[in-house]
Specification:
By secondary structure, the protein is an alpha/beta fold. The protein contains nine helices and seven strands. Bound molecules: S-adenosylmethionine.
């Protein structure tokens, strides 16, 4: 870490990462698999990944489908960790992580066969979502796909947004299916297929599937025995449980209209 994390105020994803969590998206790896299936990646195709974090999805894509991935990530610690992971996987020729801001995608030249974004649009305001979606459209080749994995709100919208924002300490602004569809449409993207499911980020069974048994034990241990981490993680878990009938994950793909 380049700076000491203030556990009381840090965004939820940084707290979870400090606890040892590597997969930081609401539907976990299983939801990501769904849009991998929709995508039909071909060797040599190109992917732009927004908020690539530790490079987990970028590495999985390059390894399994032999595509070339450019990831954009703002947090220098995550960039360093992602580069380490890419090197360890021997994928430096296929995966590049750029330290940068997804609000400045104009700095990235070229168009891609896919743009992938997981657990990043939810955190943006409506204006922010619209700016990023418009920039995504500009980076898509004709006939290409935008693949998205975000939080869904089904009901009780204002209560959910308030509770999540308070516990995650970011502007948590999940949308309904109709709102995701409309945000895409306004940016010139047309939603083609979608799937929704349970918000499982802090469910024990999803954690074992995402992080493995050893990884899960490590996370649980860190949460139990680190008195700075514990209140924040338990507070997030409680909020997800309280809101479980109103929230979930959504994965969808959209194409340029
Ligand atoms: C919730 S995590 C999602 C990480 C990853 N996509 C995943 O699914 O596991 C959010 C990530 O977005 C990064 N991030 C937040 N705002 C960003 C921005 N404006 N530009 C680039 N990355 C950003 C954070 O540093 C963090 O790594």
């Amino acid at each position: 870490m380049t700076a000491t994390l203030n556990f009381a105020t840090a965004p939820g994803h940084q707290v979870l990462a400090a606890a040892g969590k590597r997969i930081l998206r609401p539907g976990g790896k299983a939801a990501t698999e769904q849009f991998f299936a929709w995508a039909n990646f071909q060797p040599g195709e190109t992917v732009l990944e927004l908020a690539a974090s530790f490079g987990e999805s970028a590495i999985a894509l390059a390894k399994r489908f032999n595509v070339r991935v450019v990831g954009v990530e703002k947090n220098p610690d995550s960039v360093a960790k992602a580069r380490e992971n890419i090197k360890a996987a021997g994928l430096q020729d296929r995966v590049t992580i750029i330290e940068g801001d997804i609000f400045q995608l104009d700095k990235i030249t070229g168009k891609f066969d896919y743009v992938l974004a997981e657990a990043i649009l939810t955190m943006q305001s409506d204006v922010g979502k619209s700016k990023i979606l418009s920039a995504i459209k500009k980076h898509l080749k004709p006939g290409s796909k935008f693949l998205s994995h975000e939080m869904l709100v089904r009901s009780n919208e204002s209560e959910v947004r308030k509770s999540l924002s308070q516990t995650i300490r970011v502007n948590a602004n999940p949308l309904t299916l109709e709102e995701w569809e409309s945000a895409c449409r306004k940016a010139g993207l047309s939603l083609q297929q979608w799937k929704a499911g349970e918000m499982g980020l802090l469910n024990l069974s999803q954690m074992v599937r995402d992080e493995g048994l050893f990884g899960t034990v490590k996370i649980v241990w860190n949460v139990l025995f680190n008195s700075n981490l514990r209140p924040r993680v338990l507070q997030m878990r409680r909020s997800f449980q309280e809101q479980r009938n109103h929230i979930g994950y959504i994965v969808f793909w959209a194409k340029v209209t």
